[in-house]
Automatic annotation (TrEMBL):
Keyword Oxidoreductase: yes
Matches recorded under InterPro entries: 2-oxoacid:Fd_oxidoreductase, THDP-binding, TPP_enzyme_TPP-bd
Gene3D superfamilies to which the protein is assigned, alphabetical: 3.40.50.970
An example Gene Ontology biological process: small molecule metabolic process
Transcription regulation in keyword set: no
Record domain Thiamine pyrophosphate enzyme TPP-binding: where: 66-214
Gene Ontology molecular function terms on file: oxidoreductase activity, acting on the aldehyde or oxo group of donors, iron-sulfur protein as acceptor; thiamine pyrophosphate binding
Keywords: Oxidoreductase
Source superkingdom: Bacteria
Name used for this protein in its record: 2-oxoglutarate ferredoxin oxidoreductase subunit beta
Pfam families reported in the protein's UniProt record: TPP_enzyme_C
Length: 351
């Protein structure tokens, strides 16, 4: 294993959240990724979001697959539960864990190779089932860990570092997530912390399948001219649909906005998303319009970022299955095995 433990010493004046935790308490080991890798910025944004939301680290389960992106859960939330699955299998392992213990906050971290190639079947079923999770794809358009082969999200016509042109059509994970019924869909850029942190916070508070596609340049293999996932390309083609702020209702809501510039989306769990609309025509609650908007801008070579779709009244796998509120892993043997009489009644109903 290549990892370095961080020294535990804190500066006494570091700001603390409501749980008396500093940001350092949400960090993990020292990253071994390449200096400048977008994935490290996403880890920093996750740390910031969890710190700001006063998330209790022991209530988080981080799961990932294989790849540079999937290594990152080791670099944040060092006091949380963590599990590295086989390549592309994070969604099914997470689904199982979620069904066993619905009380944890599930954070699935994946790469474009991990989710759009080997794990595609897993990704689509997690979305269509509505697993209550934050699913983050750290999207660099390449298999970073195995030295830069094109991934399935690489745009047609984009160039590899060695000058080879990609001739395959890209898979758009945002379009798929929308089509499959994800109830919170957003795209951002690793280098835009101001946009990314609130999007992660909104996803954490969302009670359903929340999907975040984060363009995350690979400085080693996909940050050159001709790449559509480089820092320069994304900065030039970024079209932000909204600016987001998340206001947990535990705090006093202070609103400071001009009429017509902001809309508020009340979520089922009582939290409120405040959207600063840059494009007055963009409505993130309109599913069909969101799908069209993303496709139209993609055709123009624009990367649309922001909260693209949110269902203010989401449902999740537990509500679809009608499971009990008590996490299954806390039920007594008596409740899990109700006895011969009940079993015979169930079997009788099947005859
Ligand atoms: C079953 C299996 N097949 C192939 C591999 C080799 N492999 C490791 S990581 C990876 C792709 C990683 O790409 P991505 O998910 O985009 O992560 P990145 O490194 O770009 O962050 C591949 C193909 C593997 N580890 N296991
Ligand atoms: S190879 Fe690419 S994705 Fe992997 S750590 Fe380096 S910059 Fe990041
Ligand atoms: Mg990748």
């Amino acid at each position: 294993m290549t990892y370095i433990t961080k020294p535990k010493l804190h500066h006494p004046t570091l700001p603390k959240n409501a749980l008396c935790h500093t940001r350092r308490d949400y960090e993990g080991k020292i990253s071994t990724l390449c200096a400048g890798c977008g994935h490290d910025s996403i880890s920093a944004a996750i740390i910031q979001a969890c710190w700001e939301l006063n998330v209790e680290p022991h209530r988080v389960a981080k799961l990932s697959g294989i790849g540079c992106s999937s290594k990152t859960p080791d670099y944040f939330l060092g006091q949380s539960h963590g599990f590295n699955t086989v390549h592309g299998r994070m969604p099914s392992v997470l689904t199982g864990a979620n069904l066993a213990n619905r009380d944890l906050l599930y954070l699935g971290v994946s790469g474009d190779g991990d989710s759009a190639s080997i794990g595609m079947g897993q990704f689509v079923h997690a979305m269509r089932r509505g697993v209550n999770m934050v699913y983050i794809v750290e999207n660099n358009g390449v298999y970073g860990l195995t030295k830069g082969q094109f991934s399935a999200t690489a745009d047609e016509g984009s160039m590899s570092k060695k000058g080879v042109k990609n001739t395959d059509s890209p898979i758009d994970l945002i379009g798929l997530a929308l089509q499959l019924g994800a109830t919170y869909v957003a795209r951002s850029f690793s280098g835009d912390k101001a946009q990314l942190v609130p999007l992660i916070k909104g996803a954490i508070l969302h009670q359903g399948a929340a999907f975040l596609d984060v363009i995350s340049p690979c400085v080693a293999f996909n940050n050159h001219a001709g790449s559509t996932k480089s820092y320069e390309y994304v900065r030039e083609h970024n079209d932000a649909v909204n600016r987001l702020d998340v206001i947990p209702t535990r705090e006093e809501i202070q609103v400071d906005y001009e009429p017509g510039e902001t809309i508020e989306v009340a979520q089922h769990d009582g939290s409120t998303l405040r959207l600063h609309k840059l494009h007055s025509h963009y409505n993130p609650c309109d599913h069909i319009a969101a799908t069209n908007y993303v496709q139209q801008h993609h055709a123009r070579g624009e990367v649309v970022t922001g909260l693209l779709y949110v269902d203010p009244e989401p449902s999740d796998l537990h509500s679809h299955l009608g499971t009990v509120q008590v996490p299954l892993n806390r039920l007594e043997v008596r409740e899990l095995s109700p006895g011969r009489e009940v079993l015979e009644r169930i079997n009788g109903g099947l005859r």
